[in-house]
Write a structure and sequence with these properties.
By secondary structure, this protein is α+β, with helices and mostly antiparallel strands.
């Protein structure tokens, strides 16, 4: 019995990459590609992709004895593809709801390897809209982005100086 427990612990801990999480940032609407870094999958190789968020975990895709399974969760319905030669997971039309931890458990020749990816999907930032009024108060309105606040202030100051010089 001790031999079995020792073997299980050695296989489970010895072959995983604990504490090695890759962070991936992707813009909403794009394709997320997670590559488990395996040269070439063979029929006897296996991979299981899972997704975790808020203490809930679900299967996303699996390659088992040459068969692919991708219909585990409606959240990923019709957006998941699994590359059979590399084990790479592709999720199209990514959304901010898809942010979380993705894990790949890879079984090759009875050795288990774990790859973890922290995915951060972000919404695109729209281009700021600057509206300048021709009234004496020189109203300036900026929408969606505060990154150009100094530019807007410069425009406001320039337009006020221009108005004063014409008096």
């Amino acid at each position: 019995m001790w031999l079995f427990i020792m073997f299980f612990i050695t296989v489970k801990v010895g072959s995983s990459e604990i504490g090695n999480i890759t962070t991936v940032k992707v813009q909403e609407g794009n394709v997320l590609v997670l590559n488990p870094r395996v040269e070439h999958f063979k029929k006897d190789h296996q991979i299981l992709w899972t997704f975790s968020k808020s203490n809930q975990s679900t299967r996303v895709a699996q390659l088992y004895h040459g068969n692919m399974f991708t219909h585990y969760d409606n959240r990923f319905s019709d957006r998941v593809q699994l590359e059979e030669h590399t084990g790479a997971l592709n999720i199209s039309n990514i959304s901010t709801d898809d942010s979380g931890l993705y894990e790949a458990l890879i079984v090759i020749n009875k050795q288990i390897t774990k790859r973890e990816y922290k995915v951060d999907a972000y919404a695109p930032v729209s281009v700021p809209v600057i509206i300048i009024s021709n009234s004496s108060s020189s109203l300036v309105s900026v929408h969606q982005s505060t990154a150009f606040l100094s530019l807007c202030l410069q425009v406001l100051l320039y337009s006020n100086v221009k108005e004063l010089s014409s008096l």
